[in-house]
Amino acid sequence: MSPSTSRPRGLALLATVLCLVAGTARAATVPTPKGPHRLGPPAPAQVRRVVTLAPSLTEMVLTLGAGSTLVGVSRFDAAKEVEKLPRVGGFVDPSVEAVVALKPDLVLVQPGPGNQRPVEKMAELGVPVLLLPLHSVADVLAGMREVGRALGREKEADAVISSIEATRTRIREAAKKLPAPRVLFAYGFEPLVVAGPGSFANELLKDAGGINVAADGGSAYPVYSVERAVRARPDVVVDAADVDVGKDKVRALPGLSGARWVEVPSLALLQPGPSLGRGLEELFRLLHPEGAAKPSP
Prior knowledge:
Blueprint: H1 12-29, E1 37-39, E2 50-52, H2 55-63, E3 70-72, H3 96-101, E4 106-109, H4 116-124, E5 129-131, H5 137-150, H6 154-176, E6 182-189, E7 192-194, H7 200-207, E8 211-212, H8 226-232, E9 236-239, H9 247-251, E10 260-263, H10 276-287
Parallel strand pairs: 2-3, 2-4, 4-5, 6-8, 6-9, 9-10
Antiparallel strand pairs: 1-5, 6-7
């Protein structure tokens, strides 16, 4: 596949990973509250106008059946339901002016060091902001619950959370019956950016019965040395990159050429949102082709 060829993940993953990699050092030194938290004035009791600054947050609103409240989204949002909505910038460079002009009752933000200043400015200008860290599965579930509460969709949020938890339990039980492959989960090849300890993908790999060979990476999304990847000799390489630049060179290396290379089939495995359960099922099938096509409920 050529670098210009479109992949099902779109640009949302690329933007998120670049932000995480660029912000790793600074994030380690800037204290941030854990869990959902708010900035600016309180949102009204009935939220009618919502702006989201990340596709995963847009997915939450849509999944809860509150898509009619959306009035603005990020430029990386590709869902058909929001294709005609105004764009308010990206994950790391949201436009304060564009957001304020939409007069939102609530702005949903996945916080990061790249968007901290513009988001704080929105709050200073009187915009209610709900920040939702989405670094782990627990964060995603907490975020779903908080968005449900903010939009008056608590029952819908509880149903999504219960479904995700049931899927995780089912996948874990199925994985216990199968061999555990050694896995390298790659977001890019030049440089080699992988899922390390503390990443969303690392947690899902454990659920699906895989062993992350980059668990020694030192951060959630490290730039991993090719030499370490070669020494690790993974059984499976999960290709989650948006483009294939450098892939052929990495794939031909000793220790990696003999691995089974697979591509993620959709954004479900990559966006920390309500499609988490479906993404975990996809990962299980990628890691265990020798098992059932789909673990039985």
